[in-house]
């Protein structure tokens, strides 16, 4: 048997070489895909973790209400828990603490003054020293924020007495020496400061008291001094930052599990030494999201692998049929010589086994080298996924599985059986398409198999249409003159063998064109998602409150049109959102000019006021200023008595280009209570030139406690007047509001379809949106499928100017800015030098979604599928033409015998195959286009696994598809021409004598 196998292999080596080539290509593709979903996927997770922003990898432990005697032990135990949670990675732990509120004596009348101490482990990284030096340990020194120092009127060298703690077991007072003035840094955690880094809040109210206070702070002292200084801590925060630069995917799983269990361990360790403790981190959810994105990518890569299996199976099916036809006489002779069916099966099995072993020997190193080479090409190399040649167990299994396809028998079926299987395939493909339409984040076998099933179903339908088209061409060719063309069409139309390679040609062409179109569709969808997710070309999310003139600074640095924007969660009436997601407010400053009073930088503004009656009346003016980009900032001043004397307001106009658009004047009656009766008339003059069009109002709650509000021009000043009730509810605002514009009333908004459906609202409906502490009435003007910058969310979009005007009219001076949106930025990279906060660009987000470490494997696999499909198509076509001409050698010799020249014979044979190839390639292109429109929207998923927002728009890249089709046509015609020329030379008189 082995002698027969070896002799036949030597005699039919071209045929076996073609079969080996087909099997090796398919097994190589499977091996590369196996490496992409194993080694590359694991490496992608590691690279993604190493590239994660610090905020996503930090693990923060919080402790609230730590007693004086437990501060040091709680801090040490918390550090130990965090280090244990970060095992096995090296970790850096930093801490910050804030003491309980202390009294601040000697700060005048009005609301009581309070202060607090803070210690920050890495203070030099979180603040910028503006003047003086940092505090030294053990010296009783402190650094103040610029706003705190300005409101207290202190400089470096000043000594500030601080009273005892306002606690049940208070620590005694102390005196600190101010040695420096500092400014906060963006993104340095100042949002978790008791005053959010503001330095001064005139109406502070902590959780331990219902009374409003004037809060100053923090007094930044040495961290170790505060740790051992005997003060109780209102809050303690320790942050661990594991070093993930050299991570392993198994260690990342261990890290995620450790972080998830840290909260429970911290509670057990701290016990009753603290009132509240918690461990928070985005790290487990970030790793889980990356894993989900990894599964989504693996699903698409597996779909590519299944397409490769289908192509290989089609090529082997063709090779099996052709081999059986070529060996039909040989098999009949062996049977006649007494060879049994079992022996024939053994011979075929031995031959297939040798081919499979050779295919594994070829495909295993080839897939290893192909994978290593693929990782050195975009986008895998840009994603940091360059890999050395390596072999994995799953790769070996995939290569062996691809090689054993040679053992699959090729059944001889009747036309009726083929029709039944074709119908079953179409029904199965339709079912897979319908099942894949479910909007689920679950990665299942349906989406993996759907592309191959739909392409195969399209191919069998297309092949049913080819014979009628060829018969129609045959009827047309009969009217042509000459012999070569009619004979070629006749052979193509009437010989079943002529379209034997039809399935492989159509499937190969459709797979290649589908891969190109799916790649373009996937990239387009990722860019669309990036454009919708990032509200502008450049978005700078602020880490600290915006300051006056900041918009002009951003515009000067990056260029383009700079606009302030709000992006935050809000409450709509009593609705806080569904599924744990709060409704999102997206508000951007639109075009238009706001009226206001221009003020120049450094101008010494003064406030002069007086009140009727004998009691003392105090006001805390809040000036709202707007710069050229539409940013509104509030200058909060100290308490000013209405004693008829001018009081300066230093530091309110730090830059040029500002204008005063509103003044809020909270009125404080220190000696009044609920039972106090009577009223007082107040008159306050602000040293800015008056202007027409200003309006005045009284803020809620209990707006009737301040009546007859008015704003007028008085000489060169803006005069505000009102009648104030001395008694009444303590929670009454008693705030006089003066604005350069009228109350806008109801603010028009646009809502997303999800928002409208969840609340069952539509255009014309009125709602109340809680922004900060003020309820703003809004009216829905229209409903959009999605709100930009909030894809998939229940979101509201509004004009930031109108929203801010409504807030000011309701006594809320804070401008709701969370980010800067820049359109047409000339130099987006310059934004990093501003140190304002996190930076996102549409191009950067698109690059993350397309060339990031996790999704990069998909375009790599698609670009591998195209050459694999082309090579399989060409290999099968060469095999088909060779076997066809070998079987027709005697027929060709007879044509030579009746006088046809070699050129005429070649033209006839070439024409026959060309006539078949052209419609097959066109049919394959049509099937690929149909699959693009039907399957691509189902395969493209967001990084979370659900359907992307906005919906996928299929793309058919005409230049690339035209080039591919031209390449296929030229390659197939060249292959056919070469085979025809070689085989036609062998049709000589010897074949004619054999036939006779």
Automatic annotation (TrEMBL):
The chain crosses the membrane at residues 300-319, 354-374, 394-412, 419-436, 448-466, 498-518, 864-887, 908-935, 963-982. Keywords: Cell membrane, Membrane, Transmembrane, Transmembrane helix. GO terms for molecular function: transmembrane transporter activity. It is a multi-pass membrane protein. InterPro entries: ABC3_permease_C, Macrolide_Exporter_MacB. GO terms for cellular component: plasma membrane. It is found in: Cell membrane. Pfam families: FtsX (PF02687). The keyword Cell membrane applies. The keyword Transmembrane applies. Residues 869-975 form the ABC3 transporter permease C-terminal domain. Belongs to the ABC-4 integral membrane protein family. This is FtsX-like permease family protein. It comes from Actinoplanes italicus.
């Amino acid at each position: 048997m082995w002698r027969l196998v070896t002799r036949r292999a030597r005699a039919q080596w071209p045929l076996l070489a073609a079969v080996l080539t087909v099997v090796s290509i398919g097994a190589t593709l499977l091996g590369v895909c196996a490496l992409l979903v194993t080694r590359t996927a694991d490496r992608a997770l590691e690279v993604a973790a190493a590239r994660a922003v610090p905020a996503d990898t930090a693990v923060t432990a919080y402790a609230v209400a730590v007693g004086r005697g437990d501060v040091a032990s709680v801090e040490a135990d918390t550090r130990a828990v965090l280090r244990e949670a970060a095992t096995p990675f090296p970790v850096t732990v930093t801490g910050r603490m804030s003491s309980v509120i202390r009294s601040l004596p000697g700060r005048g009348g009005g609301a009581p003054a309070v202060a607090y101490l803070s210690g920050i482990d890495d203070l030099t990284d979180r603040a910028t020293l503006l003047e003086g030096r940092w505090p030294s340990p053990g010296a009783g020194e402190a650094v103040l924020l610029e706003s705190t120092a300005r409101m207290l009127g202190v400089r470096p060298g000043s000594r500030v007495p601080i009273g005892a703690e306002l606690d049940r077991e208070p620590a005694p007072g102390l005196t600190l020496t101010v040695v420096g003035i500092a400014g906060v840094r963006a993104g340095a955690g100042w949002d978790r400061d008791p005053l959010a880094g503001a330095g001064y809040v005139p109406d502070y109210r902590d959780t331990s008291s219902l009374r409003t206070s004037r809060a100053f702070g923090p007094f930044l002292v040495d961290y170790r001094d505060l740790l051992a200084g005997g003060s109780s801590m209102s809050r303690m925060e320790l942050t661990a930052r594991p070093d993930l630069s050299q991570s392993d995917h198994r260690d990342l799983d261990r890290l995620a599990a450790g972080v998830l269990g840290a909260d429970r361990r911290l509670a057990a360790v701290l016990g009753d030494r603290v009132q509240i403790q918690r461990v928070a981190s985005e790290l487990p959810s970030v790793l889980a999201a990356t894993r989900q994105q990894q599964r989504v990518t693996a699903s698409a890569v597996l779909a590519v692998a299944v397409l490769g299996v289908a192509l290989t199976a089609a090529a082997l099916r063709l090779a099996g049929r052709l081999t059986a036809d070529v060996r039909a006489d040989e098999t009949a002779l062996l049977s006649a010589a007494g060879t049994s069916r079992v022996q024939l099966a053994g011979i075929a099995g031995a031959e297939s086994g040798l081919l499979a072993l050779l295919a594994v020997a070829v495909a295993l190193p080839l897939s290893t080298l192909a994978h290593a080479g693929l990782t050195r090409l975009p986008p895998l190399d840009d994603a940091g996924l360059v890999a050395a040649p390596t072999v994995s167990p799953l790769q070996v299994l995939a290569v062996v599985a691809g090689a054993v396809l040679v053992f699959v028998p090729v059944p001889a079926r009747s036309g009726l059986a083929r029709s039944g299987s074709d119908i079953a395939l179409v029904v199965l493909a339709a079912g897979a398409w319908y099942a894949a339409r479910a909007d689920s984040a679950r990665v299942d076998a349906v989406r993996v198999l759907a592309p191959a099933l739909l392409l195969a179903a399209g191919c069998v339908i297309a092949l049913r249409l080819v014979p009628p088209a060829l018969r129609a061409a045959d009827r047309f060719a009969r009217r042509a003159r000459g012999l070569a063309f009619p004979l070629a069409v006749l052979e193509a139309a009437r010989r079943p063998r002529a379209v034997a390679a039809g399935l492989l040609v159509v499937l190969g062409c459709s797979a290649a064109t589908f891969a190109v179109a799916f790649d373009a569709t996937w990239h387009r969808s990722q860019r669309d998602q990036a454009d919708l997710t990032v509200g502008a070309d450049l978005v700078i999310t602020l880490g600290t409150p915006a300051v006056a003139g900041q918009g002009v600074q951003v515009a000067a640095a990056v260029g383009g049109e700079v606009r302030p924007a709000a992006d935050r969660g809000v409450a709509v009436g009593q609705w806080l959102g569904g599924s744990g997601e709060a409704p999102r407010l997206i508000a951007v400053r639109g075009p238009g000019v706001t009226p206001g009073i221009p003020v120049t930088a450094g101008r010494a503004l003064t406030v002069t006021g007086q009140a009727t009656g004998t009691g003392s009346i105090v006001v805390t003016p809040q000036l709202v200023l707007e710069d050229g980009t539409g940013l509104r900032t509030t200058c909060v001043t100290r308490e000013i008595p209405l004693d008829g004397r001018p009081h300066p307001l230093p530091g309110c106009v730090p830059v040029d280009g500002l204008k005063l658009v509103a003044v809020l004047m909270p009125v404080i009656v220190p000696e009044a209570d609920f039972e106090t009766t009577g009223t007082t008339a107040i008159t306050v003059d602000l040293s800015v030139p008056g202007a027409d069009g200003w309006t005045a109002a009284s803020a809620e709650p209990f707006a009737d406690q301040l009546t007859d509000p008015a704003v007028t021009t008085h000489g060169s000043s803006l005069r505000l007047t009102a009648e104030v009730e001395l008694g009444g509810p303590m929670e009454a605002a008693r705030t006089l509001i003066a604005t350069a514009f009228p109350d806008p009333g109801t603010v028009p908004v646009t809502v997303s379809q999800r928002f409208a459906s969840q609340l069952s609202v539509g255009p014309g409906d009125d709602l109340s949106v809680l922004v900060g502490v003020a309820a703003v009435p809004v009216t829905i003007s229209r409903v959009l499928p999605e709100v930009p910058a909030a894809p998939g969310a229940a979101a509201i979009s509004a004009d930031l100017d109108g929203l801010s005007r409504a807030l000011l009219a309701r006594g809320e001076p804070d401008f709701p800015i969370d980010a800067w949106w820049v359109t047409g930025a000339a130099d987006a990279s310059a934004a990093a030098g501003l140190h304002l906060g996190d930076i996102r660009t549409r191009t950067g987000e698109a690059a993350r979604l397309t060339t990031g470490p996790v999704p990069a494997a998909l375009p790599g696999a698609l670009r591998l599928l195209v050459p694999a499909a082309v090579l399989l198509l060409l290999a099968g076509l060469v095999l088909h033409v060779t076997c066809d001409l070998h079987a027709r050698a005697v027929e060709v010799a007879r044509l030579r015998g009746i006088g046809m020249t070699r050129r005429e014979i070649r033209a006839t044979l070439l024409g026959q195959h060309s006539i078949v190839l052209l419609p097959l390639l066109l049919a394959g292109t049509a099937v690929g286009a149909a699959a693009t429109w039907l399957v691509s929207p189902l395969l493209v998923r967001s990084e979370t696994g659900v359907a992307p927002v906005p919906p996928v728009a299929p793309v058919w890249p005409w230049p690339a598809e035209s080039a591919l089709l031209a390449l296929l046509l030229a390659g197939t015609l060249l292959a056919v021409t070469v085979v025809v020329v070689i085989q036609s030379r062998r049709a000589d008189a010897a074949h004619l004598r054999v036939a006779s």
